[in-house]
Amino acid sequence: MAVFKQLRQLSKDTFFYGLGSVLQGFISFLLFPIYTRVLTKADFGAQDLVLTAVTILSYFLILGLDSGTARHYYDGETPEEKRAVLSTWLLFELVASIPVTILLLLFARPISAWFFNDPSLAPYFRLGVVALPVSMTVRVMTLTLRLTFQAKKFSLIVAFGALTQALTAILLVVVLHMGVSGVFLAILAS
To answer: What does pLDDT average to over the chain?
Structure first.
């Protein structure tokens, strides 16, 4: 009977975690044709190039600490020890990402010239980079929800973020004609 109860809980949690991921993918799928109609090919390429670079930077800044934190979280015997693992990770991510973000903002033009071979992408790179500390914090918070088995809250937060991004992107890109800047501001808003 206990095994059946655990399997039922696992199925329920998997559904809610998967629901958030599916919704994020659906929103991206929904925004793709909108972006391709509104943005020029050059704008779409610039957005994709800068977004890829910022995503790679976020993987470097995470330093595999998401996996390490998950591993050590369950070694904690008391709630205080578990909180210490999570808060240490959050503090480290902020201490690491904020100075890196400041440096990337200051040197966005030469980085864009060297990395993208196009210094005119610097404003978009800056907008993407500003989201780094925020995205690191969101990763810590969502992993915390997963580690504490709060699947419904996780799914709700992920869904809210995806919907916020979609609605903000439509407003900024389609209605206000902000182009690539609107895409990155929508990502930051979510």
So the answer is: 90
Quote the CA–CA distance of 133 and 142 in Å, as a whole number: 14
1-5, 31-35, 180-184, range with the lowest pLDDT: 1-5
Tens digits of residue pLDDT in 165-180: 999 999 999 999 999 9
% helix / strand / coil in the chain, to the nearest 5? 90, 0, 10
Residue with tokens 């937060």: 157
Using DSSP's 3-state secondary structure scheme, residue 169 falls into helix
User: Taking a C-beta distance cutoff of 8 angstroms, is the pair 182, 125 a contact?
Assistant: no
Q: How far apart are the first and last CA of the chain?
A: 42
Rounded Cα–Cα distance for residues 119 and 144 (Å): 38
How much is the pTM?
0.87
User: Mean pLDDT, to the nearest integer, of 7-11?
Assistant: 73
Q: Measured in whole angstroms, how far is the alpha carbon of residue 69 from the centre of its chain?
A: 18
- Residue 60 CA: distances (Å) to CA of 55, 95, 136, 168: 9, 14, 11, 28
How confident is the model over 38-66, as a mean pLDDT?
Answer: 92
The per-residue DSSP string of 45-61 comes to HHHHHHHHHHHHHHHHH
Label residue 116 exposed, middle or buried (CB < 10 Å: 0-12, 13-18, 19+). Answer: middle
